[in-house]
Amino acid sequence: MTQVVLITEAQHPWSTALCRYFAMHQWKVIACGPESIDLSFIGTEQIHTVTLDPRSKESVQAAAAHVQRITGRIDLIVSQTVSTGDGEIAGIASMSPAGLLDSFNGNALGVIRVVEAFLPMMYQGLKRIALLTDPKGSLGLSLPGSSMAYSMSKAALHMAYTMMHGDLSREGYTFRLYAPATEGDMNLSAEAAFRYFTHAREDEERMVLLNEAGAEVPL
Fold it and tell me: What are residue 51's phi and psi, to 5 degrees?
């Protein structure tokens, strides 16, 4: 039976490479992106494009209804946050309440909306939920030069995934957190992500964040 993966924010080059890698391995791919982005996967019959803006509950719900007409189940969700933090000024002096709320809506609540909307389609599948994230949300690293709003929204998202892991693992769900390389060969990083997302782990009871080299990054 063909397995199905749903990948959000597929308009980004790294996510596009991941979509193509899954399709190359005969997965059916639901590639999601905001309405303003043209997702083009010409010549790739395994990939279906769907409009989805995680910042909007209505958009997420409409996308879920659309996906139900494409496939009866989802094996794997790969979520990515809306904001990458690029162009944001680091430091507490530059943080605004409006910017913080915008980052929280897109980066924390948006991903939760996606999982909530598509979870009913996962009961019969692999039951795996993955997140493309960033060490800038790590409480253990405290990386310099990071935007306050972006890092705080990422930290909140990591906590949300930890809580989902505690809740849903009892129903057989497994989780993957992955920090893709920001530079270098995107195809190699996508290959590493594919292996991590699709293979079993011996310590599924732990919530861990791995980078493209397979090294664990503090949450």
Answer: -75, 125
| pLDDT one-digit tens code per residue, 73-129 | 999 999 988 865 545 555 555 666 777 788 889 889 999 999 999 999 999 999 999
Range of the domain at 64: 4-217
Specify the CATH number for the domain of residue 106. 3.40.50.720
Our count of domains for the chain comes to: 1
Instruction: State the pTM of this model.
Output: 0.90
Strand positions, DSSP E, the chain: 4-7, 28-33, 47-51, 76-80, 128-132, 174-179, 209-211, 216-217
Q: In this structure, what token pair is assigned to residue 209? A: 């964040």
The answer to whether residues 190 and 21 touch, using CB atoms and an 8 Å cutoff, is yes
* Edge-to-edge order in the sheet of strand 128-132: 47-51, 28-33, 4-7, 76-80, 128-132, 174-179, 209-211, 216-217
